[in-house]
């Protein structure tokens, strides 16, 4: 592939886009209020800021309220803001590779594309239903993440388990974003190629700018930039659709398209795998859950996530179709690996004028920045609630968050320099999340409403352990000679018998069986826990944890859960 974007033009695009988003974040944080009319502030910010009363409370409490708003943007954002935020934060630079690779692989084709599109959109539908339930379960706690839900519902052990898995997933996501944006610039900027100094410089630039503006503006800043990024992405996709399809070199006949557009068994396996994998992972994405508390009310939450999910679906399908067109143009090159499926989108860009290549750089820089800043805010949300609860100095909390973000970003940038396959990275994180998603969210089950046993902390924790054990056993079953010595290798889902990353049934069955076994472990150990310990008690209780009920409430609760077991028996 030959592209002719100059190094100077590439840097100009990168820093212009990042500076624009930084300016928006500074405005949203209120640092430029003195220089802007209120009408301009309202137009740019578009969400409720703290009232004068809130500011008085903030001053008297050492900044506690301001820090809560910085981390949660609580009850401030309407339907459009939530929709654009979910859309922009969930669609990173990786989409240029992910669904395009599905479309350019005739073994996966339409079902692979639809699987990726549905799987990427459906977490928003789940959050539409689960979000209000989680908010209700943490009412009065000023929560802003599912780790807070785990602490309230279960205890410290499950809180730490959820936090560890969430941070791991979001860190992998960061690695994938830095890898993707670096590779895209390296592909389009002609003089640099894949020189490590250049690709690392791109990743560092995105990391530094996003850490800076999220450190200043927090979640409100991320939501503001997401609105502009979402509008920009939708506009650019429309323009790219027109441009790509109007270039004579990209035109294909119905017969050529029929070769690329297939419905295959491997495509179905990929569809099932992706839906389970991405739902499991995205329910641990605290960047998504922060938007639940940021929503102005439940209708705004549901409409916003519904609209955002619809936009995500169509964007993913767009890139999938681009992959099919690329394959249909030159199937022989893709079949012989002279061209690679994950680069199919760039195959369509090659005959276009340089101006379109620059437009794509604007597009992917927006994608990367929107995802990275959301992930950074999600990571800080995990660490902050307990510090707020125990009255830590708000300024100290913010500096601690910034220090953690710097460390996490440095680790992600270093890892991204190794240029792992983006799809493989996500599958590792997805499988880790699949081991624990059911035990955690089974905590929302209401025995009186659903007629099922509600998990204890021990039951939920053992469910997570059961999920991990299932992965290890699955690896030995798939290839005992490879995985018997180190069964944890199966988390990479390397299947010698499969022809592509999502082909074959082994990965699909792993993603089906792991959540099922984790549910069975959760139910069995919950039943045993209630029978042996006689009630719902956390595995670890610290003196500084507030009691949520008096002794009578605790006794009543124990009797209630004893009766659950008797009913089940």
Name its key features.
single chain; 569 residues; mainly alpha; Sodium/glucose cotransporter; 2 domains; 25 helices; spermidine transmembrane transporter activity; transmembrane helix; transport
Describe this entry's structure for a reader.
The chain folds into 2 domains: 7-418, Up-down Bundle (Sodium/glucose cotransporter), CATH 1.20.1730; 435-569, no CATH class. It is built from 25 helices and no strands. It has helices at 7-28, 38-45, 52-60, 64-72, 79-90, 98-103, 109-137, 146-153, 156-188, 196-246, 254-260, 265-282, 286-294, 298-329, 331-335, 344-349, 354-389, 394-416, 422-434, 437-441, 447-450, 457-478, 480-483, 506-533, 551-568.
Describe this structure in a few short sentences.
This protein has 569 residues and is mostly helical. Helices cover 73% and strands 0% of the residues. It folds into two domains: 7-418, Sodium/glucose cotransporter (Up-down Bundle), CATH 1.20.1730; 435-569, no CATH class.
Q: What is the element layout, followed by pairings?
A:
Layout lengths: L6 H22 L9 H8 L6 H9 L3 H9 L6 H12 L7 H6 L5 H29 L8 H8 L2 H33 L7 H51 L7 H7 L4 H18 L3 H9 L3 H32 L1 H5 L8 H6 L4 H36 L4 H23 L5 H13 L2 H5 L5 H4 L6 H22 L1 H4 L22 H28 L17 H18 L1
Helix pairs in contact: 1-10, 1-17, 4-10, 4-17, 5-10, 5-13, 5-14, 5-17, 7-12, 7-13, 7-14, 8-9, 9-10, 9-17, 9-18, 9-19, 10-17, 10-18, 11-14, 12-19, 12-24, 13-17, 17-18, 22-24
Radius of gyration: 24 Å
- CATH homology-level superfamily of the largest domain: Sodium/glucose cotransporter
Which CATH class of the largest domain applies here? Mainly Alpha
Q: What's the β-strand tally?
A: 0
Shape: globular
Helix content: over 70%
Treating each run of at least 4 consecutive H or I residues as one helix, how many helices? 25
Largest sheet: none
CATH architecture of the largest domain: Up-down Bundle
Number of domains: 2
Element-by-element helix/strand order:
HHHHHHHHHHHHHHHHHHHHHHHHH
Q: What proportion strand?
A: under 5%
Distance between the termini: 66 Å
Q: Kindly state the mean pLDDT as a whole number?
A: 81
State the CATH topology of the largest domain.
Sodium/glucose cotransporter
Label the structural class. mainly alpha
Low confidence ranges: 50-65, 548-562
Subcellular location: Membrane
GO cellular component, one term: plasma membrane
GO molecular function, one term: spermidine transmembrane transporter activity
Membrane topology: Multi-pass membrane protein
